[in-house]
Every structure is written in structure tokens, then in C-alpha cells.
Design brief:
With 371 residues, the protein is of the alpha+beta class. It is 65% helix and 9% strand.
Length: 371
């Protein structure tokens, strides 16, 4: 890229541009003079001594002026073409068009200079051909090669910059996703622990022996929360074990609650979000009546690629409709952020059912998440 920086007047230091500019000019002059000596060898062979030296020096001076002018014109053409075309789509077809236009401009310039020499040296019928071959064709090919290489390099650099920008955007999106997931998980975990400590406070005063066993069970559930506090998915079997600990805690406080977990779920090779199944069981306990005379039955089973949590509806008379959906919305958002799927909620008046999609490792939206 640096070798062709004479064309890149925006991202390259002025000193570097001048250095490459001079290098292009020197290369063009030397190459053009070598070719000129080859095509003009017969004329030089007919001269000798001072006449030959004088002819060579004049030709060298003319060659230097001619090639320098053509190099400057070619660079001017290149910059104009680049500024006009680079605003449009950077496609291979677009790049090819720029090269064709530059080549045509160089050829026309060569022909114009050749006609000027034909006027200055009318006795030399082949001078147009020799000048075209030696000076202008050489410098045209050289400058066109520079320009083609620059276009390809610039195109690749912009593509790499675009890919880098997309990666950075994705990384920022993942950071935002992580922050949102952490916030949702914190809301869920804090709510669960607050309820447990409230229950423990009441049991210490009325049932100290049960409070001791309750505290042991609570320590297991708290260990689960701490261990999985920074994880967004966990094996389903771990979540089911945590749910069982929670159910044990519930039985210390309430009667008339039965929770059945399908044994087949424990061998399921799938994932879920932490405190997801437990949260659905807690919602059922929180929003329904239960006691010695009214039995709340919660079933946890599998149906195809879903975890199904279902309970009979025994709606509490003091139920606040505005609060019944907050936990579900939290869970739904967490599931959607992780897997891109939605939970399915069904209420037929008799049974309340929530279907939570099973999450498989290859389905995760964010492969960088710890699990």
C-alpha cells in the first residue's frame, strides 16, 4: 500500500507521497530511456564521436522532459478518475472501468505528443512510432500499474475496515446484551432471595426447628445462585435440582402444593436459563390459592422441544392483574435474548401452561457467553 501512496492524498503523509512520486518519475525515465535506446539503436549506430554524444545528450534531455510531463498528466488523470468513481459502489466492474479510462487518457496523450514530434522532425517518418513505444507507452503502463495496484489495495483496505467495523458493532451489541441479561438475572435472583429471607424470618419466631432445616436448604439454593450468577444458560438437570430445593423450601411454609417433575427431563441434553423453571413454579405458588382443602398441582414435563410447566388455576381473590405478567415478561425476554425463541403461554380458564423452549448449544445467539 505504501508503494502506491502517491495516489492516496488523504491518508498518507506529504513526505511519503513526494518520495513515492519521485520514485515513480525515476523509474519511468530510466525504463523509457532503455526502451528508447533499443528502438533507436540503428540511428545511433550511424553516428560517431562528438555527434553521437551530442545526439544522446539531447535525446536524454528531451526524454526527461517528455516523461516528466506525461507522469504528471497521468497522475492528474488518476486522481480525477479516483475522486469521481470512488464515490460510487466499489465493485470489481467499477475498478476495471477506472483502469480503462486511465489507459485511454494515457494513449491519447501519447498520440498528441507523438504528433508534436512529427511536426518538429518532419524528415523522420517513424518518430511517432518510436516515441510512442519508448516514452509514453512505457510510462503509461507503469503509471497504470501503479494505479491498478492502488485501487486493489484501497478496495481491500476498505473491505477490511468494513469487516472490522461490523465486528466492533457486534462486540458492542454483545456487551449490551450481557449487561441486559445481568440486569434481568439480578432482578430475578433478588426477588427470590427476598422472599426466602422473609419466610425464614417468620419461621425463626414460630418454628425454630423448621427454621434450622429451612436454612440448610436455603444455603443449597443460595450456593446455586452464587455459582450461576454470571452464567446465562445452564444444563437443564441443574435447574431441575435447584427447583426441587425450592419446592422443599415452599413445603416448609405452605400446605396443599404438589410439584411433579418428569424423570425423563433429568436426562435431557439441553440447557435453560438459571432460575427459569423455579420462577414458573414460584409464580404458580404466588398467584394461586392452596391449602388443606384446595390442592395446587404443578407439573413439569417435556413436550417435543419444550419444557412444559402446567398448573391448575385456583385464582386468589386478592390477585393484582397488573403484577401477574411481570415475571413471565422477564423470563420471556431472557429466553429471547439467549436463543431467539419465545415462550408459549396458554390459559384456558382451568389450566395455566407455559412452554419454555429447550436451548441447545448450537442454537445460541451469542457464542461467547459462559455456560
Amino acid at each position: 500500500m505504501a508503494y502506491f501512496s502517491i495516489f492516496d492524498t488523504y491518508s498518507t503523509p506529504v513526505g511519503e507521497q513526494r518520495k513515492r512520486h519521485v520514485l515513480l518519475l525515476v523509474n519511468a525515465v530510466v525504463l523509457s530511456w532503455i526502451v528508447w535506446c533499443i528502438v533507436n539503436f540503428r540511428n545511433y549506430a550511424e553516428l560517431q564521436g562528438v555527434v553521437l554524444l551530442k545526439e544522446v545528450l539531447i535525446d536524454m534531455l528531451e526524454n526527461l522532459i517528455e516523461v516528466s510531463v506525461l507522469v504528471e498528466l497521468s497522475l492528474l488523470y488518476s486522481r480525477i478518475i479516483f475522486r469521481v468513481f470512488w464515490k460510487h459502489n466499489k465493485t470489481i466492474r467499477n475498478l476495471f472501468t477506472q483502469v480503462i479510462i486511465l489507459t485511454l487518457f494515457n494513449i491519447l496523450t501519447c498520440l498528441v505528443f507523438g504528433m508534436v514530434y512529427r511536426v518538429l522532425y518532419p524528415e523522420d517518418e517513424s518518430i511517432i512510432f518510436r516515441i510512442f513505444i519508448s516514452d509514453y507507452t512505457v510510462v503509461s503502463i507503469l503509471s497504470t500499474t501503479y494505479f491498478v495496484s492502488f485501487l486493489i489495495s484501497r478496495y481491500r483496505n476498505e473491505e477490511e475496515a468494513k469487516i472490522h467495523a461490523e465486528r466492533m458493532a457486534l462486540q458492542n451489541e454483545n456487551i449490551a446484551l450481557q449487561a441486559k441479561m445481568d440486569k434481568l438475572a439480578l432482578q430475578t435472583n433478588n426477588h427470590f432471595m427476598f422472599n426466602c429471607f422473609s419466610t425464614l424470618g417468620g419461621m425463626i419466631r414460630t418454628r425454630p426447628e423448621d427454621a434450622e432445616r429451612f436454612l440448610i436448604e436455603l444455603s443449597e439454593t443460595y450456593r446455586y445462585l452464587v455459582r450461576n450468577g454470571d452464567r446465562h444458560i445452564i444444563p437443564l438437570k441443574d435447574e431441575l435440582l435447584f427447583t426441587e430445593h425450592y419446592v422443599t423450601l415452599v413445603h416448609y411454609r405452605y400446605d396443599g402444593i404438589s410439584v411433579k417433575i418428569d424423570d425423563g427431563l433429568r436426562n435431557t441434553d439441553a440447557f435453560t436459563t438459571p432460575v427459569s423453571i423455579q420462577q414458573l413454579v414460584e409464580n404458580a405458588v404466588k398467584h394461586n390459592r392452596h391449602g388443606n382443602e384446595e390442592q395446587l398441582l404443578v407439573e413439569i414435563l417435556r413436550s417435543e422441544d419444550y419444557i412444559v410447566v402446567r398448573n391448575n388455576i385456583l385464582k386468589r381473590l386478592d390477585e393484582d392483574a397488573g403484577n401477574t405478567q411481570s415475571g413471565l415478561k422477564n423470563l420471556e425476554e431472557r429466553i429471547r435474548l439467549i436463543s431467539g425463541k419465545d415462550i408459549i403461554v396458554n390459559n384456558d380458564g382451568l389450566t395455566f401452561t407455559v412452554r419454555v423452549p429447550l436451548i441447545y448449544e448450537e442454537e445460541l445467539n451469542d457464542e461467547s457467553m459462559d455456560y
